[in-house]
Amino acid sequence: MAMTIQTYLDERTFRRFTMFDILKRKRYWKSPALFASILGACAIISFIMHRVDGAILLGIVLLVVGLGMPLVYFSTFFRSLKKLTKEQNLDPPRLVYTLDFPDGDAFSISNGHEEARYEWKQASIAYRDRQCIYLFITQDKAFLLPAACATEGFDALWDLIVRHMGSDRCRIIAS
User: Fold this and answer.
1) Which of 92, 124, 137, 154 has the maximum number of C-beta atoms within 10 A of its C-beta?
2) How much is the CA Rg of the chain, to the nearest whole Å?
3) Which residues lie across from 5 on neighbouring strands?
4) How confident is the model at residue 175 (pLDDT cuts 50, 70, 90)?
5) Beta bridge partners of 8
6) Each residue of 147-162: pLDDT tens digit?
7) How far apart are CA 91 and CA 89, in angstroms?
8) Alpha helix locations (H) across the chain?
């Protein structure tokens, strides 16, 4: 079944995708969490050794740094995400690209200025949550297909992608 999807992107969809990509898919939260865990454990050891001169002060410093660095990391992340979202000029939602899924081994995308054609076997992976499908062509390049843009039905679009990519490269994620 052939299908055409005109992707109108809004700030909320872009923000959800970016958070999914950075925090869930790439798991960039792990390093700050590990850092906080290590320094927190060292702080606890320092507090346990409270009879040693300077142990309490060292414990406080370790705890402040161990909790402060992830706090700064995540606040910077969310501040830059807010700025990036505003820079995308998605309020009101705008047409960013159109994907054509004809019957066959390839699909195309155009944004009004340029057009590209991809074979299904080139696609890396697809994720589906309850509001959007993230179709990754490479590990770093994805096309967003919001449910509201699937005029033939969101389930029909997902079925088309699974049929062409195979269930091993298609994942349903919790939202």
Assistant:
1) 154
2) 22
3) 99
4) low
5) 95
6) 999 989 999 999 999 9
7) 6
8) 11-19, 30-48, 55-87, 154-165
